[in-house]
Amino acid sequence: MSSDKPYRPNVGIALFNAAGRVLIGHRIKDDGPEIVLPGLEWQMPQGGIDAGEDPRQAVMRELWEETGAVNADYLGETDWMTYEFPAYDGPASHRLAKFRGQRQKWFALRFTGRDEEIDPLTPRNGQPAEFDQWRWERLDRVADLVVPFRRDVYRAVATRFAEFAG
User: Fold this and answer.
1) Is 24 left (phi over 0), alpha (psi -120 to 50) or beta?
2) How far apart are CA 60 and CA 64, in angstroms?
3) Residue 20: its pLDDT value, please?
4) Which DSSP symbol is given to 82?
5) Which of 23, 31, 81, 113 has the greatest number of CB atoms lying within 10 Å of its CB?
6) What is the pLDDT of residue 108?
7) 16, 13, 12: which is closest to 110 by C-alpha?
8) CA angle 97-60-40, nearest 5°?
9) Strands 131-137 and 22-27
10) Is the dihedral of CA 41, 38, 32, 78 positive or negative?
11) What is the pTM for the complete model shown?
């Protein structure tokens, strides 16, 4: 990956239920630089920060867009972290092809709604669904379920937010 490309500004969401488990979603497809490998299709919700958008606003928008959830309380956040995308040979027109990776700020949120509120299949804000399934998982297990290029960030998130896990 070319080091002259910028990082894409992004928020990540560790949404904790009352039992201290985090919400993870099963990725629907291989989406260019954010490749999905067989057996490693799970991740926590995350998404880009729009131009001029505050990260705290972005995290609530992304939570709603990707899961339908709106009932969540702020618990904490990380400093900025980065990861690199793997080599990408697809079309230069892909929305992520112009970035070398992502610069993320992760947020811990406590879900205060009901599980029935979570619906990752309904498109919102003109964004296609990214997940076809979801479940609650132990935070310390999530890094083993994601693609390798995200694992270091997920481990750092697990360490930083361990106090919120059940």
Assistant:
1) beta
2) 6
3) 98
4) E
5) 23
6) 98
7) 16
8) 50
9) antiparallel
10) positive
11) 0.93
Tens of pLDDT, residue by residue over 41-66, are 999 999 999 999 999 999 999 999 99
User: 2: Cβ–Cβ under 8 A, 6 or more apart, which residues?
Assistant: 100
The encoded tokens of residue 135 equal: 């479940």
Query: Side chain identity at 139, as an amino acid letter?
Result: L
Which run of H or of E encompasses 58? Answer: helix 55-67
Rounded distance, CA 163 to CA 141, Å?
15
Written out in words, the top-level CATH class of the domain with range 7-164 is: alpha beta
Domain edges within the chain: 7-164
Phi/psi for 10 (5° steps) reads -150, 150
In sequence order, what are the beta bridge partners of 7? 101
Q: Cα-flanking dihedrals φ and ψ of residue 101, to 5°?
A: 175, -155
Contacting residues for 15 by C-beta, under 8 A, at least 6 apart: 22, 23, 44, 45, 63, 67, 69, 72, 109, 111
Please answer whether residues 22 and 136 qualify as being in contact, where contact means their C-beta atoms are separated by less than 8 angstroms: yes
Report residue 120 as tokens. 């990752």
Q: What angle do CA 13, 70, 165 make, to 5 degrees?
A: 40
